Amino acid sequence: MSPVVVLVGPMGVGKSTVGRLLAERLTVGYRDTDEDIVAEQGRAIAEIFVDEGEAAFRAIEKAAVRRALAQHDGVLALGGGSILDEDTRALLAGQRVLYLSMDVEEAVKRTGLNAARPLLAVNPRKQWRELMEARRHLYESIATAVVATDGRTPEEVTEIALDALELKEA
Q: Which of 105, 116, 141, 156 is a Cys-bridge partner for 152, taking CB atoms 3.0 to 4.6 Å apart?
């Protein structure tokens, strides 16, 4: 068992929204590893970061991604930083992976780059750019297809994604 498609990309790019639309169009289930973590841990991801640190969160995330990849056969959305882990990237090899991209101006519009995002707490624009500089090549290295979301509605992104991944609606 493996997902029909795995969505990756930075925070606020629309993985959850597009993921739900893709699942609906393909008539399959939707799962989000961030939601899995919150349900399992009984607290927000930001709390885990604050209470235990990024390394502890990444270990929890790695386990959640491994479980979801093994258990879910629909559309799966991963947290923005999940691709930092080499083992996770190895698990994604051979999967149909959609990288949703956006530039910093779009990120500002969508998320406001607010403090609820623990990795963007100080100087959010600069930190977002640095995060993307560190992650972009990782997203690209595992992607089957890349869809830019800038200036597009979730429905437009979904349509482009279906075409890019050569997926047929049910």
A: 156
What is the per-residue pLDDT for 44? 92
Dig out the tokens for 57 from the structure. Answer: 């969160």
Q: Which residues contact 93 (CB under 8 A, 6 or more apart)?
A: 142
The alpha-carbon radius of gyration of the chain (Å, integer) is: 15
Which residues touch 154 (CB under 8 Å, ≥6 apart)? 14, 17, 18, 21
Q: Which helix (H) or strand (E) holds 8?
A: strand 5-8
Q: Could you identify the residue written with the tokens 């075409």?
A: 163
pLDDT of residue 158: 95
pLDDT on residue 115: 46
Please say whether the beta carbons of 41 and 61 come within 8 A: no
Q: Global pTM?
A: 0.88
DSSP 72: -
Q: Tell me how crowded residue 92 is: count the other CB atoms within 10 A of its CB.
A: 22
Length of the chain: 170
